[in-house]
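Sample pair:
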Amino acid sequence: MSATENTQQAPFKVCTSCKHVWLERDDFLSDANVELVGYQPHFEELVAGLLLFNHLKCGSTLALTVEEVQDLYSGEVFSQRLTGTPGCLGLCQHRDELHPCANKCECAWVRRILAIVHDWPKRTGI
């Protein structure tokens, strides 16, 4: 194995269906053929939740963990979870609901990440 092969990093994401490769996270998020369509929470470990994307070129659904995009958020993180309380809007309970939550809830930072990813500038021809 050559020195070049040793230093090459693995691609960020490979489509499970058509095998399209995105070398970097920005390539994936910027691709006009990648559309955020849902969020599947993991309430015991928030970073294990899944952001769901459709790859429009082949129709496949791909997922990123919250952990893979958590660095996109640098705001306040609350310690109390409001899920299931009277003040909870229930946004996390609806897979296709991608709006941020205004509550001071432990899950709110993940909702902010969804908004950041949803509004990510897209490029064609990636």
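Residues 3-118 form one domain.
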